[in-house]
């Protein structure tokens, strides 16, 4: 579904990641982990066709990614909705289906029933007519997943969808994503800086850090030895029951904070 | 009492109303077009949080109009030129609120200053000067009406074409971009459309009070509905009622049109605000019930 060969991405002089080889299979859950500034969002942008690789090749569903593919469902962080959005949950889902089309469009029954199905499949039907501004973070994220699933995508790209959600809603979000890939064979690329919510679900982990990256099963990558090597400093991975604590990893990539990839106003 | 009566008569006199009505036929036509455009554009002004930009653009539109007045050229063309320069500048230097506001705040007094300069140099009728700032109804002659209607048509077509992607880009920019919506290009395109709409409004309500047609009706509508169909419809209705009502009332008095328009517009907003806060309280109560844990 997704295939990266010796891929590299850089902003001017600064190489974010390089030498990346990765294949994502249908129905696979790939967790992308790493500190801030390690290039997780850049990877998402590359997959969406919004950013070109500086070296290597990337194919998504057998071709170079282009902007606006309906086969990719995209779920951003829940904070990304402008407060002035005067829309109901169902309008947001509908925009996911035909919001990119120019020109007047009649409201058809097919579109309406697809919107209802999408809302129902994520359990958002009870608040379908509530303005998105009045929804809680967890409710909003359910609607987001419904929006992403409304085009029946083959790949789900989740960019920090758990940010500022409490554990209860984090679980609801990850369970919905997990259910989808099991029922439809949708490949999932799940970017997060919190490991534990996706620990039991991820088939493989891509760990990005300043010193390089590691791809492998959670058991292979999330070890003291592997992460110490990635970070270039002593990092301890401690397992407590079914949770993992990473101790000693720097929060940010030590590099002048410089984010040319962020469009103004899109993210703070 | 007599002074009170005199004041009242300045605001409302309806002698010879039928004859006056013929004189403002053009204005009524222009007003209808303006209600439509202002109401529709306003929806996105609210969605994109741009009321301050509207104000900034209208000041430069005023500068353009007064320059045209001084040079003896077409005032509508002048105000459109001023508007487009302002809208373009704001569009390039950040139409999003964070960066945009300082650009607008810088642009606005400059535009106003230029306008005052041109008006000071102008030796013609004082009513013409006053009209650009506060609006006047008899100002609209037949060639001007054609200009207004032509520009309105352009704005209307542009809005119809980009309505849906613009909604997407305004409400949900990240996902819109992921789905291939040209978010930045649309942002710029909307600033141009907004510039045209503001230039049109300046003709009727004057530069100082454009907000009353481009912001207040949509703001009132968002208080009572979030339906993507009802919202623009109500916004247009509110804007049209304000402007046409304002023109009809202004006919009866000897003061400019703007206080009538702004008062109607404001009254609608106040009513919607009260009606809306009731609705939102109800919604909030319902929501907490539906939320499981």
UniProtKB/TrEMBL annotation, chain B:
The keyword Aminoacyl-tRNA synthetase does not apply. It comes from the Bacteria. GO terms for cellular component: ATP-binding cassette (ABC) transporter complex. It is a multi-pass membrane protein. Keywords: Membrane, Transmembrane, Transmembrane helix, Transport. GO terms for biological process: response to zinc ion; transmembrane transport. SUPFAM superfamilies: ABC transporter involved in vitamin B12 uptake, BtuC. The chain crosses the membrane at residues 28-46, 67-90, 102-122, 147-166, 186-216, 228-251, 257-276. It is found in: Cell membrane; Membrane. Belongs to the ABC-3 integral membrane protein family. This is ABC transporter permease. It comes from Streptomyces nanshensis.
């Amino acid at each position: 579904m997704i295939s990266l060969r010796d891929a590299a991405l850089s902003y001017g002089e600064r190489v974010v990641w390089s030498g990346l080889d990765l294949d994502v299979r249908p129905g696979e859950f790939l967790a992308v982990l790493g500190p801030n500034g390690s290039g997780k969002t850049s990877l998402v942008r590359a997959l969406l066709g919004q950013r070109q690789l500086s070296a290597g090749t990337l194919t998504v569903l057998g071709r170079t990614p282009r902007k606006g593919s309906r086969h990719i469902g995209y779920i951003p962080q829940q904070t990304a909705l402008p407060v002035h959005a005067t829309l109901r949950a169902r309008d947001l889902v509908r925009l996911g289906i035909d919001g990119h089309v120019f020109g007047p469009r009649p409201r058809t029954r097919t579109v309406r029933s697809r919107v209802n199905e999408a809302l129902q499949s994520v359990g958002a039907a009870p608040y379908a007519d509530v303005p998105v501004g009045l929804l809680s973070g967890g409710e909003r994220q359910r609607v987001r997943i419904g929006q992403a699933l409304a085009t029946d995508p083959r790949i789900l790209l989740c960019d920090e969808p758990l940010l500022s959600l409490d554990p209860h809603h984090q679980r609801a979000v990850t369970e919905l994503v997990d259910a989808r890939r099991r029922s439809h064979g949708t490949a999932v690329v799940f970017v997060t800086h919190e490991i534990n919510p996706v620990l039991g679900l991820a088939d493989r982990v891509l760990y990005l850090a300043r010193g390089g990256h590691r791809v492998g099963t959670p058991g292979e990558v999330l070890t003291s030895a592997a992460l110490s090597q990635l970070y270039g400093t002593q990092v301890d991975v401690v397992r407590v029951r079914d949770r993992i604590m990473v101790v000693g990893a720097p929060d940010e990539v030590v590099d002048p904070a410089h984010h040319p990839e962020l469009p103004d106003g899109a993210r703070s | 009492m007599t002074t009170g009566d005199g004041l009242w008569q300045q605001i409302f006199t309806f002698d010879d109303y039928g004859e006056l009505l013929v004189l403002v036929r053009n204005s009524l036509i222009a007003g209808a077009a303006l209600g439509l455009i202002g109401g529709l554009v306003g929806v996105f002004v609210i969605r994109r949080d741009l009321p301050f930009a509207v104000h900034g653009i209208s000041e430069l539109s005023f500068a353009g109009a007064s320059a045209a007045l001084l040079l003896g050229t077409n005032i509508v063309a002048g105000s459109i030129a001023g508007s487009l320069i302002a809208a373009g500048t704001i569009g390039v230097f950040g139409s999003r609120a964070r960066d945009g506001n300082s650009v607008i705040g810088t642009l606005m007094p400059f535009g106003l200053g230029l306008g005052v300069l041109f008006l000071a140099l102008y030796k013609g009728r004082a009513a013409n000067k006053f009209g650009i700032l506060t609006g006047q109804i008899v100002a609209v002659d037949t060639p001007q009406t054609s200009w207004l209607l032509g520009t309105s048509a352009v704005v209307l077509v542009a809005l119809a074409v980009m309505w849906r992607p613009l909604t997407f880009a305004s409400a949900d920019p990240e996902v819109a971009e992921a789905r291939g919506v040209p978010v930045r290009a649309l942002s710029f395109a909307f600033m141009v459309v907004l510039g045209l709409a503001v230039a049109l409004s300046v003709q009727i309500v004057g530069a100082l009070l454009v907000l009353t047609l481009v912001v207040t009706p949509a703001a009132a509508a968002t208080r009572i509905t979030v339906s993507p169909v009802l919202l623009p419809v109500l916004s247009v209705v509110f804007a049209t009622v304000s402007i046409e009502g304002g023109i009809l009332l202004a006919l009866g008095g000897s003061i400019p049109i703007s206080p009538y328009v702004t008062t109607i517009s404001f009254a609608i907003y106040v009513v919607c605000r009260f009606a809306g806060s009731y609705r939102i309280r109800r919604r909030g109560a319902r929501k907490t019930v539906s939320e499981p844990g």
